[in-house]
Amino acid sequence: MLIASNSVFSRGEDNLDAKDWIESGIWRNGFNVDPDVSVNIDEFKSQYEKNRELWDAMFGFLAKTDLNALAIGNHDIVKGRCWVTISEYVPRLAENVKVESHRRFIDLQYTLQGNELMGLAKNPEVLMEYNPAREVAFWTSDDISYYKAGPESFFLFFPSDLHQPSVRDDGAEEKSRKVVVKIEYVGD
Fold first, then answer.
1. CA distance 6 to 2
2. Is 186 helix (H, G, I), strand (E, B) or coil?
3. For the segment 97-127, what is each residue's pLDDT rounded down to a tens digit?
4. Burial of 35 (0-12, 13-18, 19+ CB in 10 A)
5. What is the maximum alpha-carbon separation in the chain?
6. Which of 1, 105, 109, 136 has fewest C-beta within 10 Å?
7. Confidence of residue 13 (pLDDT cuts 50, 70, 90)
């Protein structure tokens, strides 16, 4: 009886639509920051369900770690599959920031402090073909939507998301401190 009950509960989680799944918080593992409105929540749910242990390890790490005190640099969560990079910098003007995309890893970008925007580009033109060694392609676009980045939400950029990170918002130059997590992407 208990086994059937657990099985039904598990199928119930999988059957939630993405909006209900986000709101349920099943994915949080103690991390109490919301995804930005720009995040493709259908793809988020799909990737989480395909690689639940990795996402749980990542969200658990973010929840249990003092990210403001974590040393600048790279920190493995699951070696070769998921790691976090802490960086501090002054965001640049949009015209000085390339649009980028990745194939093998998803970017979680979370600005802890600073005054910056994240851009999502449409109708791009290739600037630099995908470089597997650097795991990046660069693009140019005149059709970019910008979203305010801050400690209240995180961004997820999947391989289909051409993104322009770390763009200076209006106002004075201000140093940002950001968490970028690389999470292994699982294709179909």
1. 6
2. coil
3. 999 999 999 999 999 999 899 999 999 999 9
4. middle
5. 62
6. 1
7. low
User: Which residue(s) pair with 177 in the sheet?
Assistant: 88, 113
Task: List Cβ neighbours of 28 (8 Å cut-off, separation of 6 or more).
Answer: 59, 63
The number of beta carbons lying within 10 Å of the beta carbon of residue 17 is 11
User: Are 45 and 38 spatial neighbours (Cβ–Cβ below 8 Å)?
Assistant: no
> Is the domain covering 40-184 a CATH 2.60.120.370 domain?
yes
Query: What pLDDT, in 10s, does the model give residues 133-168?
Result: 999 999 999 999 999 999 999 999 999 999 999 999
Q: By percentage, how much of the chain surpasses pLDDT 70? A: 92
Contact criterion met (CB below 8 Å) for 94 and 164: yes
User: CA 112, 41, 66: angle at the middle one, nearest 5?
Assistant: 25
User: What are the C-alpha distances in Å from 88 to residues 53, 82, 186?
Assistant: 29, 20, 29
Q: Measuring CA to CA, which residue among 35, 31, 82, 32 is closest to residue 59?
A: 31
Residue at 24: amino acid letter: S
The C-alpha atoms of residue 18 and residue 25 are separated, in whole angstroms, by 11
The residue-averaged pLDDT of 78-100 equals 97
Residue 170: strand, helix, or coil: coil
- Sign, CA dihedral 49-54-60-63, equals negative
Distance in angstroms (rounded) separating the CA atoms of residues 150 and 91? 13
Q: How far from 107 is each of 6, 156, 159, 172, 182, CA to CA, in Å?
A: 32, 6, 9, 27, 5
